[in-house]
Amino acid sequence: MSLPGVGAIVHYVAKGAEAGDGKWRPGPCRAAIVTHVIEPDKIDPYVDLTVFEPNGWRVDGAVKNDVTRTVDETWHWAMPDC
């Protein structure tokens, strides 16, 4: 996995919800920019993000990476299918 750097464009998985079948679904992907890398010497560091929402933006701190793209409130590298 590539290490994130300040200014990197990533995707943030928004908070999900329970679907009609009773199963939890992760939220939609949102565009985000890395604003700070926490402990950059770590292999999988937490990052601070500015997340772009449909009606504005917000800041989220100490966000963990999740390559599966299935865990709420995590980040992953931007992918076209998300």
Helix content: under 10%
How much of the sequence lies in strands comes to 35-45%
What general outline do the C-alpha atoms trace?
globular
**Strand-and-helix sequence, N→C?**
EEEEEEE
Largest sheet: 5 strands, antiparallel
- Spatial order of the strands forming the largest sheet: 6-5-4-1-7
Distance between the termini: 18 Å
Provide the residue-averaged pLDDT: 92
Point out poorly predicted stretches: none
Structural class of the helices, strands and pairings?
mainly beta
Number of strands: 7
Q: Number of helix segments?
A: 0
Rg computed from alpha carbons, rounded to a whole number of angstroms: 13 Å
Furnish the topology, listing elements before pairings.
Elements: E1 9-13, E2 17-18, E3 24-25, E4 29-37, E5 47-53, E6 56-63, E7 75-77
Antiparallel strand pairs: 1-4, 1-7, 2-3, 4-5, 5-6
